[in-house]
Every structure is written in structure tokens, then in C-alpha cells.
Design brief:
- By secondary structure, this protein is α/β, with parallel strands linked by helices.
- It contains 17 helices and 13 strands.
- It has helices at residues 15-28, 45-55, 71-89, 101-112, 132-143, 152-160, 173-188, 191-195, 210-213, 216-228, 239-247, 251-255, 268-277, 286-294, 309-313, 324-333, 349-360, and strands at 7-12, 33-38, 62-63, 93-97, 117-120, 146-149, 167-169, 202-206, 232-236, 260-263, 280-283, 299-301, 317-319.
- The protein has a seven-stranded parallel β-sheet with strand order 3-2-1-4-5-6-7, sandwiched between helices. It has a six-stranded parallel β-sheet with strand order 10-9-8-11-12-13, with helices on both faces.
Length: 363
Amino acid sequence: MTASRRKIVSIVGARPQFIKAAPLCRAVRRSMTEILVHTGQHYDDNMSRLFFDEMGIPRPDYNLEVGSGGHGSQTGLMMERIEKVLLGEKPELVLVYGDTNSTLAGAVDAAKLHIPVGHVEAGLRSFNRRMPEEINRIVADHCSDLLFCPTETAVGNLAKEGILRGVHLTGDVMFDAALMFAEKAESRSSILEKLNVTPCEYYLCTIHRAENTDDESNLRGIVEALVSLEKTVVLPLHPRTRKLLAAYKMDGLLGSCPRIRVLDPVGYLDMIRLERNAAAVLTDSGGVQKEAYFYRVPCITLRNETEWVETVRDGWNSVAGAGPEAILEAVRTLRPPEEQSLPFGDGNAADRISRLICEKLDI
């Protein structure tokens, strides 16, 4: 069989996965046919299309339009629709990314159909099984034949679970993307000018994790911290977070503080520019923690743990939780060192992953 006829299916469904897919789509398509499946887990078509356009990701061959729902109903519907795609396309490998319900559905479907699975960003652990993402990543790793680890820590986590075969330290594809799009963001994004904010004179905050949005006390603690900060706070709000802020009657508290700039979600280039120019980033997002580190911006993590322990060890990330006093103390005291250990690779993770897939498929 010729290389051009080797076929893989890549499954994405959420904005962090679009970012990871951007460099890898380019790499794998040099050597094989890729069928791109968008589950529709993040179902805002305008935002999805913006990410794909900004990052040069090919349009999906399938959009499953699953949309929102409870974990069981959403994952079940994904599995039903992904299975039909896999039975029709008959790929030689299925590639899944990260830790979402799309990851879980794709990995389980492929494993049950005896199709090899490659997991990008394998081996991450928060050691908090109350997080849905933790369950997703554990199951995906145990279904996978190729485990592409972003860090040495991830390799070690898999070894502790007895996963030794097919494990590869590749570096982080998000670092590839950060290097690839940084200058493009500076030249093409006008978000700072639109918001009339000055570099290093504002904080950037994102909140979307269920452990914060679904817990009124946690969300209130974060909001109280934000309104107490002395600098402007730029706050792109996930629609679900916005809805819950209103339900908990906290939207008025945010609206009463002139320093809080509440936005709709922004595109990737705007987000990079906001991250790169912030005085500090406050977030419960794993991807945003890493991007802050990549761009040498202090980060305060609004959770009680992080999968990206390397950013904490290097002194660039403080895990503060959701208590207002702890958040404000972290903002006041976090002063990163000059040096970074650069644990996320050299920006060539996508090429390494593509080569490993080629070896697996005997290309």
C-alpha cells in the first residue's frame, strides 16, 4: 500500500484541541491521508470557524453537531456518531487529543473496533478523580497504542500505572502552536487597541472548569478577588460561566466594577496577544497555564491542583484555589525567576508525532 493511501481519523471537539491539531494536521498530511472529525462539543459555529480559519486548520470532513448535554448523553451520542464514521472510513489509526468527552468517545470507539489509538497529550494527571477530565484522560491512555507525552512527568505517570509500551516523549504540540502563531498574533490582532488596555497594565482571567462554575462558593470567591484587584481585568467569559454568574446573581457584582472588562470568548490570535501582554494571567484552564509559561507571563491557577506541575516547579505558576485571600496573595507575591527549565520540548513535537505514526503504519 502506498503512503498516500494510509488513512488516519483525527477527532477534535473543543477549542484547546483545535490548537493542538493545528501543527499536527500540517505534519501528518505530508505523509498520509487525514480525515478530520469535529464532534461539535464546542458548538458555537462562529467561534469554531474562527479558530480553524486563524490557524489554517483544514475544514472538518465530518461535523457531528453533538452540542451540549450531560456527560452521559453527550458522550453516548458522540460514540454513536463516531462509530459510524470509523466503520465507513476504515482508518488505520485514530488520533485523539487531550481530555474532553470527545477524547473519551473517540478512544473507546476505536479500541472496541480494534483500530489503533494515538493519544496526544497522554500521561497528564491531576490526581483528582472528581474532575471529569481526569476520568477521560485515564481511560483514553489505557485504550491507546501510541501515547504521545508532552513532558517527562507524563511519562512517569504512565509508568506508575503500568503503561510502558507505546509511550513516547514528544514534547508539547501546544508549544509548537505557541511558537508558530506568536508573531502572527502581534501583527494581526487589534484586541488591545479595541479594549484600550496597555501592555502589562491589566490582568487576563478565564474561568470555565466545572469545579468553579458549578460551585457557587468557588465562583463567588474568584469574583470577589477579581473586583479587589487594582489593575484592569480582561475577562473573556465562556457562555456557561456567564449563565451561571447570572443564576448566582453575581453578574451585578462584576458589572458594578469599572475595572472588569467582560467579553465574549475571543479567537486564538486575540487570546495569544492578551496572554503575551498581561501583567499576570488568572485561570483554571490547563492550556492557558501553559501558554502563560510559554510567553513568560506569571500565572495564578484558580484550582487546588494542576497537571502542569513543571510550571509551578519553575516558579511561574502559583496554585491558589478559589479563595479570594489566597488569590490576591498569589497576585501580590508571585515573582518568577528569569530562567525556565523548558520542559515542553523544542517546538517540534508535531513532526515527532507524525514520524511515530508513520513508523506504526509502516510508511
